[in-house]
């Protein structure tokens, strides 16, 4: 039972304490922790003693976004050019994932082709020349409408006509000399601009004279004037025509311009009496040549005799000529001067006319 003396040499090792401030992104973890908070863990340090670790954990949230976008064909949105749903993982400002969903609609472009034909001088949608023209317009959906125009421009037709007609004729409704421009429609449906230089020539004027009387045994030479050609009623083509019988005679003449005109004359034929008519008498009462004696009128009992003064007043008239005129009017002597007579034998011969002078 004696004392036992024990000597102990004791070493006290310290505990380890640590604090960790850390952050992770949503969906991640730190030392098994995935939610924000303060976590204390007792671990064994290298010296075999407790290691007290405090974790201040922050869990940063992820960013989620949804974009609904519409673009036109030929464009792109964030690199996408076809309709669909696209999910992108990006890095947000907090360093964590930003999950972006894109719902993309791609609207189609409109394409159209127009084939058109116009006439020179017109325009089609602003274009005036043949060719292929491409326009980029905006369609109802807001996107490009690509319009292709294949345009043909048909030419106008131009013509000039130098023409002449004779007086009384016309060309295309025009009857006076001048220049006329008409706009017609050509076979291609476009304007045909026609210029007419029109010359109107005067008609020739043949003159066969007034209707005439032909005494039996006589002839009359008809001469209508100087022209390029002649055609008479009997088909002859001489420049003049000899008439030996009564009838209707006509001539058609053509001048150097090819213009034609005609004239007609009626010639009556009959017996012509060779009646001698004095052109003076002296009604002075001396018994010599006191009356206007026309011996042959006794053979024409139906004749009429008219005598006029210079003012056209009748100073003597008779049916037949039973008594020679004595130079008086209503029983009074007429003054010296010249008077005019018309004698109609009433036998289908021309009337005889002339003048008679009273001398005292």
Folded structure, characterized:
The protein is mainly β and 360 residues long. It contains no helices and 25 strands. The protein has a five-stranded mixed sheet with strand order 19-25-24-20-21, with no helix packed on it. Strands 13-18-17-15 form a four-stranded mixed sheet, with no helix packed on it. The radius of gyration is 68 Å and the shape is rod-shaped. The relative contact order is 0.08.
Short description:
With 360 residues, the chain is an all-beta fold. Helices cover 0% and strands 50% of the residues. It starts with 15 loop residues before the first strand and ends with a strand.
Question: What topology, given as strand order, has the largest sheet?
Answer: 19-25-24-20-21
Major sheet details: 5 strands, mixed
Determine the strand fraction and express it as a percent band. over 45%
Low-confidence stretches: none
Structural class: mainly beta
By DSSP, the count of extended strands is 25
Helix and strand succession? EEEEEEEEEEEEEEEEEEEEEEEEE
Mean pLDDT, to the nearest integer, reads 92
User: How much helical structure, as a percent, in the residues?
Assistant: under 10%
Spatial shape: rod-shaped
Given the structure, what is the number of helices? 0
> What is Rg?
68 Å
Measured between the Cα atoms of the first and last residue, the distance is 236 Å
Task: Give the secondary structure arrangement, pairings included.
Elements: E1 16-25, E2 37-44, E3 50-60, E4 63-72, E5 84-91, E6 97-107, E7 110-119, E8 131-138, E9 144-154, E10 157-166, E11 178-185, E12 191-201, E13 212-215, E14 220-222, E15 229-232, E16 241-243, E17 247-254, E18 260-270, E19 280-281, E20 304-308, E21 314-319, E22 328-329, E23 332-333, E24 337-344, E25 352-358
Parallel strand pairs: 1-3, 4-6, 7-9, 10-12, 13-18, 19-25
Antiparallel strand pairs: 2-3, 5-6, 8-9, 11-12, 14-16, 15-17, 17-18, 20-21, 20-24, 22-23, 24-25
